[in-house]
Structures are given as C-alpha cells and as structure tokens.
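Q: Second attempt. The first request was missing the SMILES, so the protein and zinc ion are both included now.
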Amino acid sequence: MTLIRAAVCHEPNSDLTIEEIELASPELDEVRVTVDACAICHSDITYIDGGWAIEYPVVLGHEISGKVAEIGPHTETELNVGDPVVVSLIRTCGLCLACERGHDVACTGKLRLHETSPIRTKAGEKITHGLNAAGFAEEIVVHISQCVPVPEDLPSTFAALLGCGVMTGLGSVFNTAKVGPDDVTVVVGCGGVGLAAIQGAKISGAKFVIAVDPLENKRHLALQFGATHALDPTEDLEKMIQSINDGRLADFTFVTTAAPEAVSMSMKLLAPMGSLVLVGMPEDGIMSEFDPGLIAARNQQILGSKMGTSRPHFDIPSKVKLWTEGKLNLEKMVSSVYALDEINEAIQEMRSGSTIRAVVCPNSTKKDPK
Ligand SMILES: [Zn+2]
Ligand SMILES: [Zn+2]
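A: Got both inputs this time. The predicted holo structure:
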C-alpha cells in the first residue's frame, strides 16, 4: 500500500478536493504507474456534474501518461519499471469472445479490478476507481492491458491525449467509419475529439472536411487542424453543404458533442448511403428521434463509436507513428498545463469551451511545466 495525493469528487456538482488516499499494491496482471500527465476529458466532467450515475466518492481521470513504477507479482509482461506508457480505460481480458474478435471496447471479462477498487480514504472508506483508472492522482494501479508503451521522446502531455480524446476522434474516422479518399465528412463539435476527427479525416484524404461548431474560436481552430470549411450551426447547414459539394450532402457525419440537438441535426446532413457516427455520449436519459422509413429509403447507417472502436495496443502506436511523421498535431491540442492543486481551475477552463485540452501533471508543482 502507498499513500498518494489525489483529487477526490465527494458529490456531484462540487469542487474536487486534494487529499492523501491509500493506493493498494498491484496484484497479478496489474501495474502501478506514476502519473506524469492526465488530461481532462468531457466524460470526467459529465461524472463530476452528476450526468452519469456513479458511486461517490470517486477519483476520475482516464487520459493518462506515466511511467511504470511496479509490476504485480507473477505478471508476464514485456514492460519494465521506468518504461513510459499511455494508460487508457480500455481493459481487456484476452479470453472472452469480444477479445477473440479484436473488439477491445466490448470486452466482457471480469477482472479483479472490476470487483475491487485499489483506492481508499485514509479512514478505509472505498473510493470508486473512476473510468477504470482514477488518473487525477500521483499514482494509479491499473490492469496491464490498459498500458501501452510509448517512445521516450514523446512529451508526456502529448502522450496523455492518446489515452482517450485523440484515440477516440481518429478511431471514429479510421476504425468505425473507415473514411476513404473522396468521402465528404462533416464533424459536428470541435472540442478535442472533434479536432482529432478532423485531423483523421484529413489524413484519410477526405474530399471535404466540414466542421460545425457554434463557437467562433472552435471554428477557427478547426480550419487550423485541417477542416476545409467551418460552419455555424445556426446557418442553413443542408444548403451550405450542398453548395460546397456540388448539390450533394455528406457521406459521413461525426457527432462528437454530447449536445442532444446535434444528433437529429446531423442526420439531416447525410446523403443517401451515408453514415451517422455517434462519438460523443450525452447524459443518461437523453433520447433522439429519427424517421426510420427515411433511413431505410436512403440506405443510411447509424454507427456507435465507443472510444473510436479502438484497440489501444494497435491504435496508440499507429498514432505515435503519425505524430512522428508530422501528420498528427498533438502539440496544439494541449491548451494548458496545471498542477494537481489547480485541477478545479483546469476543469473550469474545459467547461468554458475556450480550450481544447487542459492537462494536469500530478507530480509537478509548477503551472505550465511544458
Ligand atoms: Zn475520455
Ligand atoms: Zn475480454
């Protein structure tokens, strides 16, 4: 057992509190990782705001980079203590049907960490291991399958983004939709996941990459990340897309925002044979309406994309390669860097919509150690 500092969420809609908590030692097929960087993702904020059910107290944070500090006894792994890794929430047993099929995001295996949280308060009260990781902390204990080794020269703040937002955005384009050259793509929502999807569509050679966001600064960013057009959703989007694309609507529409109205709006932007790709996850209980007859008549598809249908042990190294080749911009996606004590400020910055990714460095005491 180790004592660590962590940002604990005790109840919905409250500030996180920085506390010393207990972290259990890793057991078989588990590792302890020292957290270098943990980015704040909108899923963390949805839990903090009570939008999804979870047991409190909880430590959130799941977009993580760090170094292996300890490997559980009898664990067979190629990882060594000191290796830099990206940690994601995707945990695989390697034995179930989903794992056999390569569907990492749908693993049904029951591992020890599904039953037991490795973190407790100093008084012995259970703390939920938020999003399988609890990365808003100096150290974490996770299943070995959640750790993917990355090169030493990849800065830790960039690496963290590969754990969720960037992997999800690129994965929705490469894995879920399989966008090809000449496809016309629309990306609705230009936060971290949306900007990653825009970069992915550009890398895939899409004919047009049309970004949609109500915020002017986000539309401006979208153009910098490779969008060919950036539209305000208050405009007549159908008409504008048709005028861009020779009278046709889009082949793919990626909904990367959790705003409920974005889903039905995005469906209307699709050409016959087109696919709506649902990437952002709205709060519990949000419903959308479709005309199923029209979807059938237009031969359209609706695709769910959990974490970009990613297989982290394949997808993270391939994203590192894109970064090495200069095709994937990670640097510009890190908007600001905070120490653990400043995490509420970082969350506020993410809520404001003014930022792409705020990253917390739990083992650094100074702001912006970039
Ligand atoms: Zn996330
Ligand atoms: Zn499995």
